[in-house]
Amino acid sequence: MGRPRxxxxxxxxxxxIRDLILIRAGRTALxxxxxxxxxxxxxxxxxxARFESGNLRLKSDHIQRxxxxxxxxxxxxQDTDQGDLLIHLSGEGLNHLAKIDYAHDENDLTxxxxx
Length: 115
Hints:
Layout: H1 10-30, H2 34-40, H3 45-52, H4 60-72, E1 75-79, E2 85-89, H5 92-97, E3 100-102, E4 111-113
Antiparallel strand pairs: 1-2, 3-4
Helix pairs in contact: 1-4, 2-3
């Protein structure tokens, strides 16, 4: 039999979900596919895909490499005292978001991405 799977503490789970949100939001803001981001940070794309789907925990050094890449691209984050996560975009992140088309209905703020 294999080794028993270690149960994640609530703090570890919250941290993993926070990292997942940061990585998916940053990747989306830059217009990168999972394969593109994995290549840039020297990580196998299937590991990133499994992480984003909640089926794998990335090592902290992998998370750190991704967040450093985002920082260089103008994407940073801040954890507030109230428990909120703020994601700040500048530079490349904002340039990509400028290509997003929003619905013409002022009540519908759903982004419409142009290809």
